[in-house]
Design a protein that fits this description.
With about 475 residues, the chain is an alpha/beta fold. It has 15 helices and 22 strands. The structure holds NADP nicotinamide-adenine-dinucleotide phosphate and magnesium ion (MG).
């Protein structure tokens, strides 16, 4: 049997070295499946952020990374991808005890996707081509795609490894350097990745990791004059704050923010396939999935049938200890998340929601477990429907026409994802075009790949990660015009 990986206490990773925070403060890391301390991290100060930015600036200016050819950077990115796969047990274990992720998913989704991302951008790094431009000028004109400089990457608690890779991989591919601040509750894989960067041959100072409080360090990093771009994923509220602060120094920002996507089941859908998509859309990552589908809209002729199937099927989804390889739904990632989800569900039940499945917490090993829950008969304005719950909670509404389904689906400030389940190909085209979201799934949910861009519209944010588009956010175009006279 493979031995259980161990987690050493974390330090800050600055200029290729591990160090304590400037004031020596540390903070515990808690396993949400047991509410037991599993490790600790250094708790950075703004002086540590300054040191990390200075290291990233010096590394960028030295050209040791930024002026390598794309092909040379590509080789290093491929090595990072290989090392992620070679260390998959350790990374998956850390992600699982940090976030409460079922170990099977931590491996096949989180670790694999991170490795895939580095592999994918490794190919893009070799094609950062400029263009020649024909002009009537007495000149030869061409463009160059150059890195931006120092990137500040700020990531949320729910997919630490995937969402840091979705920033650091394209940033590195384009020749930038990085200061990464992971979420306070889930910092562990960011620290393991620092070792992988070093082993892969990323020069000192090119990636720096500062663990600490977003509210204490975030403004400092975002407004730092030596930081050239901010890549943020997190809540809409913090994203708005970050974007307005970045505006003062005119830093470009990518902001992947909250979501509250609708999943529409038409009566002409293959119900068995549709129910599979409906369930995975709201239980995946214990519902802490910005691109999840927590709002189900069902066409009236199959409404009660769908509720009946959900009532039978949802309690059967394997739920419990994330270290059990069969587990699909684990605990929520923190006491905060648990309190928020419990509050929203108990409020909705008190306001008259019909409980189709779940509805309450589950006592297991002292962890933050909340049962997968399906609630029907709530008005669209109820906060359980209208706000991002970020837990394993599905609300179900009924509709009568395609127009009404589109109106309900779009009737949210968010626009990250949406989905529809239908057997009618013409409807699939019509409705997917009408949905106001960055990605639309048809007869599926949650299919994501580093080649396929994702990102939000409306309050779900700015910019796209993944795909060739991801490199655009980490490069700038310079025009060079050389006289031919
Ligand atoms: P959050 O509270 O907004 O935190 C995100 C990150 O921002 C954390 O690292 C946090 O640090 C940091 N932060 C907090 N205050 C800051 C400030 N004033 N300046 C700069 N950074 C600051 O989000 P979360 O609770 O971790 O994650 C859940 C949210 O992320 C949900 O809304 C979800 O929809 C969204 N999300 C979106 C996507 C997407 O792709 N669109 C993907 C995943 C998650 P601390 O941890 O230290 O507070
Ligand atoms: Mg938070």
């Amino acid at each position: 049997m493979a031995k259980t990986p161990t987690l050493r206490p974390g330090k800050l990773f600055i200029n290729g070295e591990w160090r304590e925070s400037s004031d020596g403060q540390r903070r515990d890391v808690i396993n949400p499946a047991t509410n037991v301390v599993v490790s600790s991290i250094a708790w950075a100060t703004t002086a540590d952020v300054d040191a990390a930015v200075a290291a990233a600036r010096a590394a960028f200016d030295s050209g040791e990374w930024s002026r390598l050819s794309g092909r040379e950077r590509s080789r290093v990115l491929m090595r990072i991808s290989q090392l992620i796969r070679e260390n998959s047990d350790e990374l998956a274990y850390a992600e699982s005890v940090d976030v409460g992720k079922p170990i099977t998913f931590a491996n096949i989704v989180d670790v694999n996707t991170a490795a895939d991302q580095y592999e994918y951008v490794a190919s893009l790094a070799q094609h950062l081509d400029g263009a020649t431009r024909e002009t009537p000028l007495p000149a030869f004109a061409f463009t160059r795609r150059e890195p931006l400089g120092v990137v500040g990457a700020i990531t949320p608690f729910n997919f630490p490894l995937i969402l840091s890779s979705s920033k650091i991989a394209p940033a590195l591919a384009a020749g930038n350097t990085v200061v990464h601040k992971p979420a306070s509750d889930t910092p562990l894989t960011a620290l393991l990745m620092a070792d992988i960067f070093t082993q892969a041959g990323v020069p000192a100072g090119v990636v720096n990791v500062v663990t600490g409080s977003g509210s204490a360090l975030g403004d400092h990093l975002v407004s730092h004059p030596d930081v050239n771009k901010i890549a943020f994923t997190g809540s809409t509220e913090v994203g708005q704050h970050v974007a307005s602060l970045a505006g003062q120094t005119l830093k470009p920002v990518t902001a992947e923010l909250g979501g509250n996507a609708a999943n529409i089941v038409f009566a002409d859908a293959d119900l068995e396939q549709a129910i599979g998509a409906v369930i995975s859309a709201f239980v995946f990552n214990t519902g802490q999935f910005c691109m999840g589908g927590p709002r189900l809209l069902v066409e009236r002729p199959v409404y009660e049938t769908v509720l009946g199937i959900l009532g039978q099927a949802v309690p059967g989804v394997p739920f419990g200890d994330p270290m059990n390889p069969e587990t699909v739904i684990g605990p929520l990632a923190s006491q905060n998340q648990f309190d928020k989800v419990s509050g929203i569900v108990s409020g909705a039940i008190a306001r008259g929601a019909r409980v189709v499945a779940g509805g309450s917490a589950m006592e297991l090993n002292g962890g933050f477990y909340f049962q997968p829950t399906v609630l029907a008969d709530l008005p669209s304005e109820d906060i359980a429907v209208a706000e991002e719950t970020f837990g394993p909670v599905l609300t179900v509404e009924v509709f009568d026409t395609e127009e009404e389904a589109i109106r309900l689906a779009n009737g949210t400030p968010y626009g990250l994802a949406a989905g529809l389940q239908t057997g009618n190909i013409a409807r699939a085209h019509r409705v997917s075009a009408a949905l106001d979201a960055g990605i639309v799934w048809v007869n599926a949910w949650g299919l994501l790949d580093p080649a396929v861009p994702f990102g939000g519209v409306k309050a779900s944010g700015w910019g796209r990660e993944y795909g060739p588009e991801s490199l655009e956010a980490y490069t700038r175009t310079k025009s060079v015009v050389i006289s031919t006279l």
